[in-house]
Amino acid sequence: MSDEQSNAPGPKLAGASPMNDARLEAARKRLAESRDEEDAIEGLREIVANLLGSEELGLFMVDRGAATFPVYWSFGIDPEKYDLGWALGDAGLRRVMDGECHVDLADGDHAGAMARVRAFVPIRFANQTIAILAILRLLPQKLAFDGSDMELFKLLSHEAATPLFAQSVHSNLVGKEPGMKA
Amino acid sequence: MPKKILVVDDSKTALMMEREILEKRTNYQCVTAADGREAVEKARQEHPDLVLMDVVMPTMNGFEACKMLRQQPGTREIPIVLVTTRGEESYMEAGFQSGCNDYITKPIDGVELVELLKSYLGE
Known about the structure:
By secondary structure, chain A is α+β, with helices and mostly antiparallel strands.
């Protein structure tokens, strides 16, 4: 997904396979109907587990000032041992920051027969990547990501930020912006 | 009368997707439950033609619910398809021992799901 594309409205259902429509619609509804940020996080975990096939994931915030990526939330991984910058490399990180979904195979111990497929999805808000969803290992029965998964990545990229972070953004603004009330 | 499927999952996302598939891609009617205990109750009340049930759930898991459904006269003949993220052989074996008819893994392939349901329920 290019930066230009990421500025466009969310992925359209027309043209997608009928069964993928169901997946996209379920993901969209689940995020939109989240009661609060905690429920949105649970929704994200459910989407990745049930629709994408992974139970190892993390959501990393983008701290532009410090050029770091602190863990916001994770599931099935030890976040302290995970360095997003190291995992993605400078070029990969730059692409994700520019709004491109990045899928690769981990090297080292997990290469070869037990290849470890990973995906890094930029969570975009106001044309900026504000967080990165890292999907770090697939379930054994899921061998790779396919085109329909890419559609779902795009949907998450465009539509996950508001349910995940709206409350925090609002809380941060309260008190800073004149006339803004809780 | 459309055939009725009881879909059981504690994940709202899974329920939403399975409902989307059933309502838009089949003529089957869909009722839902959020855990095994609710599934056993709903099966008694709704008399579904098939149960599509997750395994890992709070309160009562899919294996336990499957065993209970098999013990009750009114529900023992209902086809049960277990759905889970766990694809290990030991899990599948446990599923069949609990009395399920079929066992599929997540993420669900919508086309395969519909084909499987049709094999039990027809068009």
